[in-house]
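note to self — DONT lose this again. spent like an hour looking for the file last time. sequence + predicted structure for the chain T wanted, 73 res
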Amino acid sequence: MPLDPDRTVAALIADQPDLIPALVAVGFTPLADPVVRAVMAPRTTLREACERHGRPLAGVLAALEARLAGAAP
């Protein structure tokens, strides 16, 4: 199932905690800090994060979905 870019980052990582390192790797480095993650992730959608950090949404989604496919049993 494709990731929904309009869900909050907190909801995405609550469902898929393996996405945290992938999010950091694609440029969302503040998420490596648990305090920043606790404050910002519930208030920011993946789409908004891409816009704020100047990352292409399609590329980020592809990277995250690839990470999930690799993590699948």
